[in-house]
Automatic annotation (TrEMBL), chain A:
<dbReference type="InterPro" id="IPR051781">
    <property type="entry name" value="Metallo-dep_Hydrolase"/>
</dbReference>
<keyword id="KW-0732">Signal</keyword>
<feature type="signal peptide">
    <location>
        <begin position="1"/>
        <end position="21"/>
    </location>
</feature>
<protein>
    <submittedName>
        <fullName>Amidohydrolase family protein</fullName>
    </submittedName>
</protein>
<dbReference type="InterPro" id="IPR011059">
    <property type="entry name" value="Metal-dep_hydrolase_composite"/>
</dbReference>
<dbReference type="GO" id="GO:0016810">
    <property type="term" value="F:hydrolase activity, acting on carbon-nitrogen (but not peptide) bonds"/>
</dbReference>
UniProtKB/TrEMBL annotation, chain B:
<feature type="domain" description="Amidohydrolase-related">
    <location>
        <begin position="855"/>
        <end position="938"/>
    </location>
</feature>
<dbReference type="Pfam" id="PF01979">
    <property type="entry name" value="Amidohydro_1"/>
</dbReference>
<dbReference type="InterPro" id="IPR051781">
    <property type="entry name" value="Metallo-dep_Hydrolase"/>
</dbReference>
<dbReference type="InterPro" id="IPR032466">
    <property type="entry name" value="Metal_Hydrolase"/>
</dbReference>
<keyword id="KW-0732">Signal</keyword>
<protein>
    <submittedName>
        <fullName>Amidohydrolase family protein</fullName>
    </submittedName>
</protein>
<feature type="region of interest" description="Disordered">
    <location>
        <begin position="973"/>
        <end position="994"/>
    </location>
</feature>
<dbReference type="InterPro" id="IPR011059">
    <property type="entry name" value="Metal-dep_hydrolase_composite"/>
</dbReference>
<dbReference type="GO" id="GO:0016810">
    <property type="term" value="F:hydrolase activity, acting on carbon-nitrogen (but not peptide) bonds"/>
</dbReference>
C-alpha cells in the first residue's frame, strides 16, 4: 500500500520533470513514517538486522529492533515495508565544490576560487547553486549532505554545510560557516614545467611560508580579543577559530606538513582542527592522537604517491588510521570531483574491501564525517532526535553492484530521486523501444 | 703599447705553432726537424694486450717509427730514458663537442603550442630538426683550455660534432695537438650523428614527441632512398648530405637503455649500423641491449649518493633511484661480461677530471682493466675505422701516448706526459723528485720538524716546532724547486721566513732563506725517517653490496623472468563469457599458456592445484583505452594529422603502472595516441607481461589500429579564445580535414597501385608513411578508434567513412552514443565508453550513466574503458555500474571489460573468454568480480602468474628491507665525506587523452 503511494508520488514528480531541468524540492513531510524490517546501518558502527525506524516532523523518533519492539498500530501514519532492503543515514560529502562549478572546462560556470592569499572572509555558501544539475545526480546514490568548500590561496575561505534538496542556498543551509580552509605549504616543490616535469625537491621556502601563516594567525587572534572600531573583515572572519565555533580545516598530505600544521594550530590555541587530504597521516598518528585531530582522507580511489608503496596503499589508509584510533572521514576532491561525488559510497566500499569492517566503512561517510564537520548533533547516524535524513537501498549501498535507492528522505521530506540523466535515459529508451 | 702587445701575441703564437711544410713562415728561415725521439727502457703497451718490458719507442714526424726491444736507434735521435715508467697509447673519446659551441635557439621548449609547419630554410629538408648538411668541422675552433683538460685525463684524440637536432650532421676527428694546428684535424668528416633531440634552432612544433621523432627518422630514410633513385623533381640539400654521409660511422645518441632499443629498431628496419651512444643504465636491460648487436659508446658518470640524513625528505626518494646509485658502477662490468663491444666517453661527466676516479670505481666494481684500456684505445679506433692511425703504438700510428709512473688504472699512478702526434704535453713533471718523509729543518738558529706527505704528484707539508706545536706555513714544489714560507707561532709580529731551494737529493734539502728583516741565511733539512703512506696500511675501501637487478629495475620488479605454469583451479565460480555462462563449483586447467580445460572434476598430474572454493575465475580484463606506460609524449600534436606515428615505438616496459594494472586484474590494454589532433597516431595493443621488454609485451600479430579524435580537443576549444591557431577550429572543419586526408590517401594509393601494376617502371611515387597508413584504412587493413562525444560528430565521421566506403571500428568515450545507438548499429561500429563520467566539459553535458546499457540493448558491442591510470585498476567496478544504472545482467556487464573489448580489438579469437585453446589470460578473484569487495588474487597471462597477492606482500617487505640497506649505505657515503645530492624524485606524469607536451 505504502509503496504504491510512493510510486504514485514518484510518477507525479516524473511528470513534472518534463518541464523542469531540475527536480522540485520536496515539500515538508506532513506524515509520520515508519520503515519496517530493513537492515539498518546506524552509521555508528552498529547494525540492526530487522529494524523499525520511525520519524515525525523531520526528526527520528524511533530506532529499534522490529522483532522486539511493540508499537501501537497507529503510532505512525505511514509504514514502509523494507524487508530485504537496507537503511542508511544520508551520506555526507566533505570538502566538495558541489554547486560552485557546473562544467569543469567552462570558466563562466566556475565559482570555486578567489584571487588572494588569505581569504577567510570569502564564503562559499552564497555561491552555492542549489539547482545545479550535478547535485541532483549525487542523491540517487545516497549522498544527501555536503560541505561546500572554496578553493585556492593559502586560506581559501569559509565553507558551509548544506542538504541537497533545496530551493536556494539559504534553504539548503545545515550549518553556515562551519570552518575555514587552510592550504598548508608543501615541504616539497616541483621543478620543471607542465610540459617537462623535473624533479620533486625540498622546498627551501617552506619555513618562511609556514611562518607567514603563523604570523597571520597571531595577528588574527590578537585582533579578535577586542572589537576594534576600525573593522578588518579578513581578521574578523577568523574569530570562530579562537572561540571554538569554527573548525580549522588544514589541507595537507605530507607527514611533515601534518606534524607542523597541527603544532602551529595548537600554538595558536585553535580549538578544532581537522586534516583534509592526509595521504601521509598514517605516518603522523602520534601527533594526530596527541591533539585529537581527525582526518578527512583524500580520495582513496587514487594512486600511491611513490612506486615503492603498496599498490593498494590508498585503499588501506582508512583502515590503518582507524586502527590507530584516529577519527577518519572521506573526501573526494581532485579531477572530476563534482560529478564523482556520486561515487562517495564506493570510496567507503573500497576501504571495506581492503580490511575495514563494513559498518566502520559506513561510519566513514556518516558519523565520522558528521563529527569532523561538527554536524553530528543533527545528522550522521540513525538515532532518535537527529534529522530524518536517510535512505533505503535495495542492497549494500557501498557496493555499486547493489547500491539502488528506492527512497530517500532529507529532514523527513521524501525527495525526488529522478535526474535529468534518467529523463534522457527514458527518452531514448522510448525512442528505441527498449524496456 | 699596442704594437708591443701585438708583438707579444705573435711571438707566443709563433713559438707554439708549427705549420705545414708549404705554409709561408715569418720565423727567420724554414727550420724543419727530421730528428727522431726515442724513449728507452720503458714498459710499453703497444696495445692493451701487447706489452713490452724494457722496450724502446722510436718516433719521428709525429708518428711511430718502430717499437720493440731491439730497435736500431738512428744517430740523430733525442733519447729519453724512461726506466721504471710505462707508456700507453693515448685515449680516444669519440663522443664530444670539443671546440664546437652548441647552438642556442631563441625559443625555449614548450614556448608555443602553435603548430608551425613552415621551414625557414631554403633547399633543405622540410623538418628543421633534420640537419645532416651540418658539418662539425665548419664551426670547429680549437679550444685549448678544454684540450688541456682532456690531455690531463690521458686523451689524445676526440671526435666532435654539433649536438643539435635529430639528424645532426657530420663529426670530425681531432688530435689534441696544442702545438700544431695544421695537424689537429685528423679527419674532417668521419662520423654522422643522430639523437632524439629537437633542434634548438627550429620553431617548428613537429615532432613534439618521441614517437614523432621515430616516425620522422623513418620518413627521412624512406625519402633518402627515393631521392637517391632520382625520383624527386626538386633538390634537397639535406638528403644529398645524408646520402654522402652514408659511408661515415653512424652514431646515434640515445641517452637511455630503452631509447637504445628504439634506435636499434630503426637501424634494423633500414639495414643500418648505428653505434649507440648510451647512458649508463644499459645493465638494467642487458639481454635486449646485447641483442641489438650494436657497438656502444658509454659514459661513466655515476650519480652521487642521496643525502638521506633527514628521514622526512629521504622518504621521497624512490627505490629505483637509490638502487641506480648502488648499481650504476657495475654497468661497465655487466656490458663487458656480456661481450658487448663498447668505447668509453667523458660525455655527461660534470668535469673531465672525474673520469679517472669514476673509471677506478667501475674497476673496483669488477670491470676488467685490460677491457678498460681497450674501451679507451683499440675499440674506439676500430669503431672509427682508424686502427692504423690511433689507439695503438703500431708502426705508422700517430705518436699519441701517455707516460705514467706505473699501471695506468691505479690510484697512485702519476700521469707525467701526454704526447700527441709527437708533441709533448706535460701533466706532471717527470723529473720531479719525491721528497716525502720527515725532516729536521734548520733555519739559522731555529729548528723545526718538517713532515712532507701527500701523493707523489701532490706533495703536502707540515711544520711543527721541536715540541710538536703546529707552525703556520705554506709549501709548494714545482720543477724540483721547493718553496716554503714559515710563520713561527711564538710571535705576533709578521715574523716570517721565506725558504727556497733546488732539490738535488731527496734526503738532504738545502737552500736560501730570506727573513722578514731581509737577512739571508742558509737552511738545511735532513731526512730523519722515510715517508710511510697512511692509506697503504688501511685495507682498500670495499665496494658496497650491490643490489640485484630486477626486471624492470624498479620496486616490485622480479629478479628472474617468470615462466608459464600448469595450474588447476578447483571449485570456483567460473565466468566463461561463452554459452556455458557462469559455472559454479567448476574447475579451470591452464597448461602451456593456454586454457586446457573448463569443467567439473578436472585433474592433471602435472598441475599445481589451487583451491578456489568461494572464489571467482574470469578471463583477464581488457582496457580498450589506456595511456599508461608510454615514454615521452602521448600526443604528437605538431600536425593535425599524425598517422605516421605509432605508440608501438614508445611502450615503456618499466612503468610501475603496469604492475598496478595487473593488481586490478588487467591483462591487456590498447595504448592509444591522445586526442589533440583529428588524425592521431597508431596504437599499441599490449599484454602486461611485467618484467618483459617492451617488444615482448606487444600483442603478437596485432590488428592495426589508429586513433582519431573529434570535438573540443581537436578544435582546441579549451585552449582559450586567443588561441585559434590550427585548422580546424570547428566541427565543420573536422569534416573537411577527414575528407581532405582520405582523398589524398585514396589518390596516393591509386598512384602506387598504378605504379606497381606497371611493373614499377618510371619514377616511383614517394612513400609517405602518413598517407600509407590512411590508405590502409581505406583498404580495410587498419581500424579506427575514434575519440568522440556528441551526436553530431559521431554521425559525421560515420558519414565520411561511408563516403569512402569503409566503416569506423570503434567510437571511444562516445558519451552521446545512446542518442544514435540505432545508427551506430547500422554502421556496424562498436562503443568503448565510460560508465559514469560527465560534466568535465561542455560536450559531456548530456553524458549519462545509462549510455552503455542503451547502446548494449540496441545491439552495439559495448566496452567500458579507463583513459585513466587509476581507474584502469578498478574496471571491474566500472562494469558493475552497467548493472546498477542500466539493469544489464551481471554476465553481460562483465563482458563490457573482457570479451567486448576483445571483440572491438579483433582479438577475441585468442582472448576475452575462458574457452579451451584460448590464451590463459586469467584472473582469480576473491569474490564476485563485479563487487567492490572483490580483489584480484592472481593475474595470469599465458600461464605466467604476473601478479600474486601473497607474493605482493612479500615484495613489499623486501622493498622496505632494501630501502633500509641502501639508506645505510648512503649514510656511510656521507660520513666518508663523499659528495651527496639533495633528496629528489622524478615526477611522473600520468597521461590522459588531452595531455600535451613538448620535447
Amino acid at each position: 500500500m505504502i509503496n504504491k503511494n510512493i510510486y504514485k508520488l514518484l510518477l507525479l514528480f516524473c511528470a513534472s520533470v518534463q518541464i523542469n531541468a531540475q527536480q522540485i524540492p520536496a515539500p515538508k513531510q506532513s506524515k509520520s513514517i515508519l520503515i519496517l524490517n530493513a537492515t539498518a546501518h546506524l552509521g555508528n558502527g552498529k547494525v540492526i538486522q530487522n529494524s523499525a525506524i520511525g520519524f515525525k516532523d523531520g526528526k527520528i523518533t524511533l530506532v529499534a529492533d522490529a522483532t522486539t519492539i511493540r508499537l501501537a498500530a497507529d503510532a505512525y501514519e505511514t509504514t514502509i515495508d523494507a524487508s530485504g532492503k537496507h537503511v542508511y543515514p544520508g551520506f555526507i560529502a566533505a570538502n566538495t565544490t558541489l554547486g560552485l562549478v557546473e562544467i569543469d572546462a567552462v570558466k563562466s560556470s566556475d565559482d570555486q576560487e578567489e584571487i588572494g592569499t588569505f581569504n577567510p572572509n570569502v564564503r562559499s555558501i552564497i555561491a552555492y547553486n542549489s539547482e545545479s544539475k550535478v547535485v541532483e545526480t549525487v542523491r540517487p546514490n545516497g549522498v544527501l549532505v555536503a560541505q561546500v568548500t572554496p578553493r585556492g590561496g593559502t586560506i581559501s575561505g569559509t565553507s558551509s554545510i548544506v542538504q541537497l534538496d533545496a530551493w536556494s542556498w539559504k534553504d539548503a543551509i545545515l550549518k553556515e560557516n562551519d570552518g575555514i580552509h587552510l592550504n598548508f605549504p608543501s615541504s616539497f616543490k616541483r621543478s620543471g614545467s607542465w610540459f617537462e616535469p623535473g624533479v620533486i625537491e625540498p622546498n627551501k621556502d617552506y619555513p618562511k611560508q609556514a611562518e607567514e601563516i603563523n604570523a597571520f594567525l597571531i595577528n588574527a587572534k590578537a585582533y579578535n580579543q577586542t572589537t576594534p572600531k576600525e573593522r578588518n573583515i579578513v581578521l574578523e572572519a577568523t574569530k570562530g577559530l579562537f572561540d571554538g565555533t569554527q573548525t580549522l580545516y588544514i589541507h595537507a598530505d605530507e607527514e611533515k606538513q601534518i606534524v607542523d600544521a597541527i603544532q602551529l594550530a595548537a600554538d595558536n590555541q585553535i580549538k578544532k582542527v581537522v586534516i583534509v587530504g592526509g595521504f601521509e597521516a598514517y605516518k603522523a598518528t602520534a601527533q594526530l592522537s596527541k591533539y585529537n585531530v581527525g582526518v578527512l582522507l583524500r580520495r582513496v580511489h587514487d594512486m600511491p604517491t611513490s612506486a615503492d608503496q603498496d599498490v593498494n596503499l590508498p585503499y588501506k589508509m582508512a583502515k590503518i588510521l582507524t586502527d590507530k584510533g584516529i577519527v577518519v572521514g572521506l573526501e573526494n576532491s581532485g579531477d572530476h570531483e563534482r560529478m564523482s561525488v556520486r561515487n562517495l559510497p564506493f570510496l567507503a566500499g573500497t576501504c571495506a574491501a581492503f580490511g575495514l569492517d563494513k559498518e566502520v566503512a559506513v561510519q566513514l561517510i556518516t558519523l565520522n564525517t558528521a563529527k569532523l564537520l561538527g554536524v553530528d548533533a543533527t545528522c550522521g547516524t540513525l538515532e532518535t532526535g537527529k534529522d530524518a535524513t536517510l535512505f533505503i537501498s535495495e542492497g549494500d549501498a557501498l557496493d555499486m553492484r547493489t547500491n539502488k535507492l528506492t527512497t530517500a528522505f532529507i529532514q523527513g521530506r521524501n525527495i525526488n530521486l529522478d535526474t535529468f540523466q534518467n529523463k534522457l535515459n527514458r527518452k531514448f529508451k522510448e525512442k528505441f523501444g527498449q524496456k | 703599447m699596442k704594437k708591443a702587445l701585438l708583438l707579444l701575441f705573435l711571438s707566443v703564437f709563433l713559438t707554439k705553432t708549427y705549420a705545414q711544410d708549404y705554409f709561408p713562415v715569418n720565423e727567420s728561415v724554414h727550420n724543419k726537424s727530421k730528428n727522431y725521439t726515442v724513449f728507452t727502457n720503458a714498459t710499453i703497451y703497444v696495445s692493451p694486450t701487447q706489452k713490452i718490458e724494457k722496450g724502446t719507442l722510436l718516433i719521428q714526424d709525429g708518428k711511430v717509427v718502430s717499437v720493440g726491444t731491439n730497435i736500431a736507434i738512428p744517430k740523430n735521435s733525442i733519447t729519453i730514458d724512461l726506466t721504471g715508467k710505462t707508456i700507453y697509447p693515448s685515449f680516444i673519446d669519440i663522443y664530444t663537442s670539443f671546440g664546437i659551441e652548441k647552438p642556442k635557439g631563441n625559443m625555449t621548449p614548450g614556448r608555443s603550442r602553435n603548430p608551425l609547419y613552415d621551414t625557414k630554410r631554403t633547399g633543405f629538408y622540410w623538418n628543421e630538426s633534420v640537419r645532416p648538411e651540418v658539418n662539425g668541422y665548419e664551426t670547429f675552433k680549437y679550444d685549448q683550455p678544454k684540450a688541456d683538460e682532456f690531455l690531463k685525463a690521458g686523451f689524445g684524440v676526440v671526435g666532435t660534432h654539433v649536438p643539435d637536432g635529430i639528424a645532426q650532421g657530420s663529426g670530425a676527428l681531432v688530435a689534441l695537438n696544442n702545438e700544431n694546428n695544421s695537424k689537429q684535424i685528423i679527419s674532417n668528416k668521419l662520423t654522422n650523428h643522430f639523437a632524439f633531440t629537437k633542434s634548438a634552432l627550429t620553431n617548428q612544433q613537429y615532432p613534439s614527441s618521441l614517437m614523432g621523432m621515430m616516425a620522422l627518422l623513418r620518413q627521412m630514410y624512406l625519402d633518402l632512398d627515393w631521392y637517391k633513385k632520382g625520383n624527386s623533381e626538386t633538390k634537397d640539400l639535406s638528403l644529398e648530405a645524408l646520402a654522402s654521409n652514408e659511408k661515415l660511422v653512424q652514431i646515434f645518441a640515445t641517452e637511455d637503455k630503452l631509447n637504445s632499443l628504439r634506435a636499434s629498431k630503426i637501424a634494423k628496419e633500414f639495414g643500418l649500423n648505428y653505434v649507440l651512444k648510451g647512458s649508463g643504465n644499459e645493465f638494467e636491460r642487458i639481454e635486449e641491449i646485447k641483442n641489438t648487436n650494436a657497438k656502444f659508446i658509454i659514459p661513466i658518470s655515476f650519480p652521487d649518493a642521496y643525502d638521506v640524513s633527514n628521514p622526512y625528505l629521504s622518504n621521497q626518494i624512490e627505490l629505483a633511484d637509490m638502487r641506480f646509485w648502488n648499481q650504476a658502477p657495475t654497468n661497465l662490468k655487466v656490458l663487458s661480461d656480456n661481450g658487448i663491444v663498447f668505447a668509453l666517453t667523458t660525455d655527461k661527466l660534470k668535469k673531465i677530471e672525474d673520469f679517472k676516479p669514476n673509471l677506478l670505481k667501475a674497476i673496483k666494481y669488477g670491470f676488467d682493466k685490460t677491457k678498460a684500456l681497450e674501451a679507451l684505445t683499440t675499440i674506439p679506433a676500430a669503431i672509427l675505422g682508424k686502427s692504423d692511425e690511433v689507439g695503438s703504438l703500431k708502426t705508422g700510428s700517430y705518436a699519441n701516448f701517455i707516460i705514467t709512473s706505473g699501471e695506468v688504472f691505479d690510484e697512485k699512478t702519476v700521469l707525467y706526459e701526454n704526447w700527441v702526434q709527437g708533441s709533448k704535453f706535460v701533466v706532471n713533471d717527470i723529473n720531479a723528485k719525491d721528497i716525502r718523509g720527515n725532516y729536521d729543518l734548520t733555519v739559522g738558529k731555529d729548528t723545526y720538524k718538517w713532515k712532507i706527505d701527500g701523493t707523489a704528484d701532490a706533495q703536502k707539508s707540515e711544520i711543527t716546532t721541536v715540541d710538536a706545536k703546529k707552525v703556520k706555513s705554506t709549501f709548494s714544489i714545482a720543477k724540483n724547486w721547493v718553496s716554503l714560507v714559515i710563520k713561527p707561532a711564538d710571535t705576533i709580529k709578521s715574523n716570517f721566513a721565506r725558504l727556497t731551494g733546488f732539490v738535488e737529493k731527496a734526503d738532504a734539502l738545502s737552500g736560501k732563506a730570506v727573513l722578514s728583516n731581509g737577512d739571508e741565511l742558509v737552511w738545511n733539512a735532513v731526512k730523519t725517517s722515510p715517508f710511510v703512506a697512511v692509506k697503504d696500511t688501511l685495507k682498500p675501501e670495499k665496494p658496497n653490496h650491490v643490489m640485484p637487478v630486477t626486471y624492470p629495475n624498479v620496486a616490485f620488479g622480479d629478479t628472474k623472468k617468470q615462466t608459464a605454469q600448469t595450474l588447476l583451479f578447483k571449485n570456483a565460480t567460473v565466468w566463461t563469457n561463452e554459452k556455458e555462462g557462469i559455472l559454479t563449483e567448476a574447475d579451470v586447467l591452464i597448461k602451456n599458456g593456454k586454457i586446457a580445460a573448463v569443467g567439473k572434476n578436472l585433474s592433471d598430474a602435472s598441475a599445481t592445484v589451487i583451491d578456489a572454493k568461494g572464489k571467482h575465475i574470469t578471463s583477464g580484463i581488457i582496457d580498450e583505452h589506456s595511456h599508461i606506460a608510454i615514454s615521452k609524449g602521448v600526443n604528437e600534436s605538431g600536425h593535425n594529422s599524425t598517422a605516421e606515428v605509432t605508440i608501438q615505438d614508445v611502450v615503456n616496459s618499466e612503468d610501475i603502472n603496469i604492475y598496478r594494472d595487473l593488481a586490478g586484474g588487467v591483462t591487456i590494454s590498447q595504448l592509444l595516441h591522445g586526442s589533440a589532433n583529428p588524425i592521431g597516431g597508431r596504437s599499441a595493443i599490449v599484454k602486461w607481461k611485467w618484467g618483459s621488454a617492451a617488444d615482448e609485451m606487444l600483442y603478437k600479430n596485432q590488428p592495426k589500429f589508429i586513433k582519431f579524435a573529434l570535438g573540443e580537443n581537436v578544435k582546441q576549444a579549451n585552449w582559450g579564445i586567443d588561441n585559434p591557431t590550427r585548422f580546424p577550429q570547428t566541427r565543420m572543419g573536422v569534416e573537411q580535414v577527414f575528407t581532405d586526408y582520405f582523398q589524398l590517401a585514396k589518390e596516393y594509393d591509386e598512384n602506387w597501385k598504378k605504379f606497381n601494376a606497371g611493373n614499377k617502371k618510371g619514377k616511383a611515387p614517394r612513400v609517405d608513411l602518413e598517407l600509407q597508413t590512411l590508405a590502409e584504412i581505406l583498404n580495410k587493413e587498419r581500424f579506427i578508434t575514434c575519440h568522440s562525444y556528441v551526436e553530431s560528430e559521431i554521425l559525421n565521421l560515420m558519414n565520411v567513412a561511408e563516403k569512402f566506403n569503409f566503416r569506423v571500428n570503434t567510437f571511444t568515450h562516445i558519451l552521446e552514443g545512446y542518442k544514435v545507438a540505432d545508427k551506430m548499429k547500422e554502421h556496424g561500429v562498436g562503443a568503448s565508453t565510460f560508465s559514469d563520467w560527465w560534466a568535465y566539459k561542455f560536450e559531456v553535458n548530456d553524458a549519462i550513466p545509462y549510455n552503455g546499457p542503451i547502446m548494449h540493448n540496441e545491439g552495439v558491442v559495448v566496452a567500458y574503458n579507463s583513459d585513466d591510470a587509476e581507474m584502469s585498476r578498478r574496471l571491474n567496478q566500472e562494469a558493475a555500474k552497467a548493472v546498477k544504472y542500466g539493469n544489464v545482467s551481471e554476465e553481460d556487464a562483465w563482458k563490457f571489460v573482457t570479451l567486448n573489448p576483445a571483440k572491438l580489438l579483433h582479438i577475441d579469437d585468442k582472448v576475452g573468454s575462458l574457452k579451451v585453446g584460448k590464451d590463459a589470460d586469467v584472473v582469480l578473484w576473491s569474490e564476485n568480480p563485479l563487487s567492490i569487495y572483490a580483489k584480484a588474487e592472481k593475474t595470469i597471462i599465458e600461464g605466467v602468474v604476473y601478479f600474486d597477492i601473497e607474493k605482493d606482500a612479500q615484495k613489499q617487505l623486501a622493498i622496505t628491507k632494501e630501502r633500509n640497506e641502501l639508506i645505510g649505505q648512503m649514510l656511510q657515503e656521507k660520513n666518508k665525506g663523499n659528495s651527496t645530492q639533495a633528496p629528489t624524485r622524478k615526477e611522473k606524469r600520468e597521461y590522459h587523452c588531452d595531455t600535451l607536451e613538448q620535447l
